[in-house]
Amino acid sequence: MKKTILSIVSALVLTSVSALNAAEWKSGIQWVEPPVVDPGPETAPANVPSDAIVLFDGKSMDAWENGQNWPIKDGAVYSGRGMVVSKQKFGSVQLHVEFATPAEVKGHSQGRGNSGVFWGPYEVQVLDSYQNQTYFDGQCGSIYKQNPPAVNCCRKPGEWQSYDIIFMRPEFNEKGEVVRPMYVTVFQNGILVQNHLQVKGETYYHLKPFYTAHDAKMPIRLQDHGNPVRFRNIWVREIADTPVQPVQENSPVKPFEVFGSQE
Ligand code: MG
Fold first, then answer.
1. Do residues 243 and 234 touch, judged by C-beta distance below 8 A?
2. What CATH number does the domain containing 44 carry?
3. Is this prediction's pTM over 0.90?
């Protein structure tokens, strides 16, 4: 418990220090605006697969550090004070999250319905991007400040939406160098918005992305950005990593044997 309080306090101090020093960083890339796609009406909560680990079932935030500071109402949890961090850590995962930005529209750009879904330090942005302009690599479905979503398929404010995210973890060697970068695939409301994107590093607001070596297993985190975004039906399935090494030239296993020969 002491450790938890200490880590929350140090995170708060670090956040405020970096906020004081924060000069906004931008990639300078001139992205094309993602076209708007209507995903259709909101749906009932998705089924939970039998091998999934449920992180929020509508009743309890016991699976999360700081969960007591996120209020639960009518089967949904509202983004509250401070980030929530899953107590369990995961390697590569398939993550399902349902979210709704506030029905009452307040603010604009990054100030409207902002939250985020993280594996470790890497953010898939949550934002009310329904008729709300912001920088494209910071809108809903973006890998924050690295890549815009392929399309803008946000539902209206207050309507339930879903993310199905595949986080393929990065791997580091003993020197802390990246052996294999992270890859992220995201479906928003069943529509592909990030297709096996190679992530450049941590998704900072104020810094160019770079990797800092971390554990193979990391927590899932949900962001408090001061907006009461709702969440429900959060579950995760830990999945196998992609192969670390490509097949070597002198390997007894030839590439065609791996992928299947047409001959
Ligand atoms: Mg965010």
1. no
2. 2.60.120.560
3. no
